[in-house]
Design goal:
Structural class: alpha+beta
Number of helices: 7
Helix content: 25-40%
Strand content: 25-35%
Number of domains: 2
CATH topology of the largest domain: Alpha-Beta Plaits
Family: Belongs to the RRM U1 A/B'' family.
Main location: nucleus
Strand order of the largest sheet: 8-1-5-2-9
Keywords: mRNA processing, mRNA splicing, Nucleus, Repeat, Ribonucleoprotein, RNA-binding, Spliceosome
Pfam families: RRM_1
Oligomer: single chain
InterPro entries: Nucleotide-bd_a/b_plait_sf, RBD_domain_sf, RRM_dom
């Protein structure tokens, strides 16, 4: 199982610069993503995107589409595309700058501002206007609100009940440079957890164990503690939160 997605090599830098779009639309709180490997299962894809982008600010919604949408009697393929709606323009801008070109499941992400402000943000800001006719269909397709089914990120609290000791891994209250993550849902993997933890200094690697148990290595106890304080209780999906302890 792969760990952290590697940055683009020097050899691929020139080709990456040719395919990365520069922002051509006004800055807004919604980002448009493309060049995604659509063979990834939808629940895994949405959670991986949420994990990647939530470190830049509060993410209100992640939208991915299934199948095609119809506009004017013609089908428009939308596979390999997604939208991330942030609470603020500042967070979206920071995410765009940081994640454009990030190698996500083997492909460099193409990230841009969305063409239109999302309905969710427009309604919040009091600027929402209902579109009509063809423009409405096109706008909905562009925002993932029309013909395609969407997968939404929803968050709920749940208690962690995994028993790490049966894997020969014991939790402890004594600070350690290795963290223990329990009750990780099956759709989360090393790559997703690595994207989450690598934002903290001293991160080394994530290692999986059976039963939804993972260990996360840092250079020092201090750095592991910083990551624990920042991520303990992080919501992974609708029914699971990140339960972190020190490893004995």
């Amino acid at each position: 199982m792969s760990a952290v997605a590697a940055p683009p090599s020097a050899a691929s830098a020139s080709s990456l610069s040719r395919i990365k779009p520069l922002p051509t639309y006004p800055a807004n709180a919604t980002l448009y993503l493309s060049n995604i490997d659509w063979s990834i299962k939808k629940p895994l894809l949405k959670r991986a995107l949420f994990t990647l982008f939530t470190r830049h600010g509060k993410v209100l919604e992640v939208i991915v589409l299934r199948g095609d949408t119809s506009t004017g009697g013609k089908k428009r393929p939308l596979r390999g595309q997604a939208w991330v709606i942030f609470e603020s323009v500042q967070a979206a801008t920071a995410a765009l700058a940081a994640e454009r070109g990030f190698v996500f499941f083997g492909r460099p992400l193409m990230v841009n501002y969305a063409k239109e402000v999302s309905d969710r943000i427009a309604k919040r800001d009091g600027t929402y206007k209902k579109s009509k006719g063809k423009r409405k269909a096109e706008d909905e397709a562009a925002l993932g609100e029309g013909g395609g089914k969407m997968v939404r990120v929803e968050e709920k609290e749940v208690k962690s009940n995994a028993d790490a000791s049966k894997h020969g891994i014991e939790p402890t209250d004594t600070p350690s440079s290795t963290l223990l993550a329990q009750n990780i849902p099956p759709e989360c993997n090393e790559m997703m957890l690595s994207m989450l933890f690598k934002q903290y200094s001293g991160f080394q690697k994530v290692k999986s164990h059976s039963g939804g148990v993972y260990t996360i290595d840092f250079d020092s106890e201090r750095e592991a503690t910083s990551a624990m304080n920042g991520l303990n209780g992080f919501k992974l999906n609708a029914s699971s939160v990140l339960d972190l302890k020190y490893r004995q």
